[in-house]
C-alpha cells in the first residue's frame, strides 16, 4: 500500500468521522489538523484505533506527537512506515 493510498483513506475517514462529510472539500493532505482543531486527544485515539483495525499497525506512544500528527500527509507517512516495518517483520519470521 502506498502513502498516497493511505492519504486518500485518511482523508475519507477524517471527513466522515470528524467533519461530518466536509461538503466543501476544505480538508487536504496539508491542512493543519491540530491548529484547526480537527483532531484533539480523543480524536487522535479514535484515529489510532481505526488505523490499527484498518492496517494492523500499532503506533507507539512515543510517535504520537504534534510533528507526526500535523496533517494527513504526516500521519500517512507514519502509518505507511509502520505497515512497511510490520511487513518486514513478517518476512523475517
Automatic annotation (TrEMBL):
Residues 5-83 form the Carrier domain. PROSITE patterns: CARRIER (PS50075). It comes from the Bacteria. InterPro entries: ACP-like_sf, PP-bd_ACP. Pfam families: PP-binding. This is Phosphopantetheine-containing protein. It comes from Saccharomonospora cyanea NA-134.
